[in-house]
Amino acid sequence: MRASRRSRTPKPPAPPIEVSFPDLSAYAKGNTGIAYAWTFTTANAGPHVLLQALTHGNEVCGAIALDRYMRDGTRPTRGSLSLVFANVEAYRLFDPADPYSSRCIDEDFNRLWSDDVLEGSRDSVELRRARELRPLYDAVDVLIDLHSMSEPCVPLALAGPRAKGLALARSIGVPEHIIIDEGHVAGKRLRDYGHFGEPDDPRNALLIECGQHWERSAPEVAWQAVLRTLQHFEMADREWLMRELAPLAPPAQKVIEVTDVVTIGSDRFRFTFPVHGLQTIAEAGTVFADDGGVPVRTPYADCVLVMPTRKPKRGETAVRLARYVA
Q1: How far apart are CA 299 and CA 303, in angstroms?
Q2: How far is the C-alpha of 7 from the C-alpha of 21, rounded, in Å?
Q3: Which of 20, 13, 325, 12 has its CA nearest to residue 177?
Q4: DSSP for 221-263, written as a single string
Q5: Staple 65 to which of 16, 106, 222, 239, CB 3.0 to 4.6 Å?
Q6: Are the C-beta atoms of residues 307 and 295 closer than 8 Å to each other?
Q7: Alpha carbons 104 and 8: distance in angstroms, whole number
């Protein structure tokens, strides 16, 4: 009877798909010895910057931005630039009738980035791809990981817990909201992998959430992030940049610090009222979720909800709790 009741619970409708998914087959061979991975190296000294799309297979905005860069024919003016389409196997399985199912094939590509997982005995489609790409990540100075979100939310830069991550987000200048966070209990993200997560190592990474997965504006957010990354590292032709950059200066950035992570402890987790990204709950102690009969409360006043999950799953993050900081 319990299973029957669950089957009658209606799923919330998926947001509309407002973008086209590019054909990436032209990039399959790569030029690095790794499928769907390209590196362009110049004779001029400079950093090695990597731009990544499709860490999750249904997050198309980054793929649209990198496809646009490749088709424009422009190339870096100094240093080296790598472009990676990460989980193309999952991307190929995208089904508009079930758009959330192609996030990954076997497991989340963005929860694998600790040595014990990468060098352990486990096997999956995503782990094989992670091990294949790992030498390239080890070789770069800066990694920009382009993502999107399951629910509508303003774009976010996830800077991680280190001062260098916040500095990188501020240097790029977009998006407006920067999140200082530690990541997820379920596994380490690529942006926190190895040297990227070491406070005294100059190599750095930034994860940018460009909006809802399939909203029309998300690819442009990804494109502006690409442009401003190249501008910051002085890696692009100035005339080309001036043609492509948004005409208006981006707004002053705001910093939000995550203080608590709500990890789902049961199969009966639910939010007690509709929630959305960057929603602020004014009163401390407000019950905003129920985890198998255990109330989940805001720990302080003006508590900000960061990326509440659409599909609760035991052991994964339900939401991160945060507050604005100076």
Answers
A1: 7
A2: 31
A3: 325
A4: HHHHHHHHHHHHTT-S-HHHHHHHS-SSPPPPPEEEEEEEEEE
A5: 222
A6: no
A7: 26
Q: Answer yes or no: are the C-beta atoms of 313 and 264 closer than 8 Å.
A: yes
pLDDT beyond 90 at 101: yes
For 120-147, give one letter per residue: b (16+ CB within 10 A) or e: eeeeeebbebbeebbebbeebbbbbbbb
Q: Is 61 helix (H, G, I), strand (E, B) or coil?
A: helix
- For β-strands 279-281 and 303-306, DSSP reports them as antiparallel
Contact between 158 and 179 under an 8 Å Cβ cutoff? The reply is: yes
C-alpha 4, offset from chain centre: 35
Secondary element (H or E) of residue 40: strand 37-41
Confidence of residue 326 (pLDDT cuts 50, 70, 90): confident
- For 52-89, write each residue's pLDDT tens digit: 999 999 999 999 999 999 999 999 999 999 999 999 99
Task: Identify the pLDDT of residue 13.
Answer: 79
Q: From 2.60.40.10, 2.40.50.630, 1.20.120.550, 2.40.50.200, which CATH number describes the 258-325 domain?
A: 2.40.50.630
Non-local CB neighbours of 274 within 8 Å, separated by 6+ positions: none
Kindly state the average pLDDT of the residues 170-181: 98
> Which residues make Cβ contacts (< 8 Å) with residue 139, sequence separation at least 6?
48
Structure tokens that stand for 251 in this block: 């707004």
Q: Are 212 and 150 in contact (CB under 8 A)?
A: yes
Tokens read off for 75: 């190339």
Architecture of domain 25-252: 3-Layer(aba) Sandwich (3.40)
The number of beta carbons lying within 10 Å of the beta carbon of residue 181 is 25
